[in-house]
């Protein structure tokens, strides 16, 4: 990635590409026979990486790290390298499938509670004619079942694998297993399958436009308050310490 195409936020190299440019990058990877990794870090995840060197290296190892969430866009403004727009994981999934469906893309869905991935699969194949769901697996497993899951993924011959285990579990899982996955674009997409199937609701667009998606989420899922305390800490850390990372 060239300097123009990324911004270093507290040590994490976030892509500065727009949604369209990110989709084009993924389209370029599609079908090239190798494995690519995609993470969509938000403020919480970047702050987690700031506190945990090993996790930071895991994030930075991915081919694509797009800016999920308004907090990351604000951080880029504080650092005077403003991102054009946020590239949220859920939106990226839809924008990518809209284009990739014409190439007959094969998709494996891994994550969320039993039946959610199957339902999400039916919805995606209805929404995007040409997209084929080549396998599903719920996200609850014992560590010793990991190889079996990797074998399932490889046997399904996917072009795209969505790993929806929540952060930081999915990023770590992808990092530990990417070399065993023979090919495909492996994307860590958090609660996207839940959002797609209506298990959880995303903020209305008006809230999203106001940059208040996090507040909506907090109202719906108050148990996230502990995690969300990372948001003000993230903002303050970027404000007071962010510039020194930008120079790296
Ligand atoms: N999940 C999973 N396996 C686990 C823990 C969580 O498949 O061991 C799923 C969970 O069912 C949910 C998603 O991971 O669908 C986490 O969603 P969340 O919105 O919390 O994602 P985050 O905000 O952490 O990216």
Low-confidence stretches: none
Oligomer: single chain
Number of helices, where a helix is a run of at least 4 consecutive DSSP H or I residues:
13
Class derived from helix and strand content: alpha/beta
Radius of gyration: 17 Å
Major beta sheet, strand line-up: 4-3-8-7-5-6
**SSE run:** EEHEHHEHHEHEHEHEHHHHH
Care to count the β-strands?
Answer: 8
Distance between the termini: 14 Å
List of distinct ligands in this structure: uridine-5'-diphosphate
Mean pLDDT: 94
Shape, per Cα inertia axes: globular
In short:
The protein is α/β, with parallel strands linked by helices. The chain has helices spanning 19-29, 43-51, 53-60, 70-78, 89-100, 116-127, 146-155, 169-177, 192-197, 205-209, 213-220, 225-228, 230-246, and strands spanning 6-9, 12-15, 35-39, 64-65, 106-111, 132-137, 160-164, 184-188.
């Amino acid at each position: 990635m060239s300097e123009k195409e990324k911004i270093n936020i507290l040590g994490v190299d976030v892509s500065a590409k727009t949604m369209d440019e990110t989709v084009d990058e993924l389209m370029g990877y599609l079908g090239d026979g190798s494995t690519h990794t995609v993470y969509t870090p938000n403020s919480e995840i970047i702050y987690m990486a700031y506190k945990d060197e090993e996790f930071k290296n895991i994030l930075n190892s991915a081919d694509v790290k797009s800016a999920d969430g308004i907090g990351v866009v604000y951080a880029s403004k504080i650092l005077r390298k403003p991102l054009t727009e946020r590239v949220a994981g859920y939106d990226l999934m839809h924008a990518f499938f809209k284009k990739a469906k014409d190439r007959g893309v094969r998709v494996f869905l891994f994550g969320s509670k039993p039946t959610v991935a199957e339902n999400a699969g039916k919805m995606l194949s209805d929404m995007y004619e040409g997209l084929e769901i080549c396998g599903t697996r719920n996200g609850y497993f014992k560590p010793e079942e990991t190889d079996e899951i990797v074998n399932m993924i490889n046997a399904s011959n996917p072009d795209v694998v969505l790993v929806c285990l929540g952060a930081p579990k999915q990023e770590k899982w992808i990092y530990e297993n990417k070399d065993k996955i023979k090919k495909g674009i492996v994307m860590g997409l958090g609660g996207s399958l839940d959002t797609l199937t209506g298990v959880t609701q995303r903020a209305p667009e008006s809230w999203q436009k106001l940059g208040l998606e996090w507040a909506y989420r907090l109202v719906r899922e108050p148990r996230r308050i502990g995690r969300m305390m990372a948001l003000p800490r993230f903002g303050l850390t970027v404000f007071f310490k962010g510039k020194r990372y930008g120079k790296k």
